[in-house]
Amino acid sequence: MINSVAPGTELTMMQLSQTDGLRVTERLAATRNTKKIEEAAQEFEAVFVTEMMKPMFEGLSTDGMFGGGKGEEVFQGFLLQEYGRNVVKAGGYGLSAAVKAELIRQQEAQSLAAAGQ
Known about the structure:
mainly alpha, single chain, 117 residues
């Protein structure tokens, strides 16, 4: 197929195919970055939800033989973290989508700035 092309265009076609290869590599890297960004955004939302839930549990009294103490404080923190993660898994409040969009926008701006240098 290359033989049917006008003389002098073979080099241009080779350069284009190399550029396409770079685009594919960039797309694969972007996909990996998008996955990491999505995980980071969801973790951010989970931490946010956890912090918003903490005041709800501060006023609870823990009377009785097995209630109270440092152990309960620690495990209550773990419980709240799991609540936050489960809220995000169930759909969350939409905060992770906004964080993800902003992180992607910043990454694209950095890529364009690096390409311009």
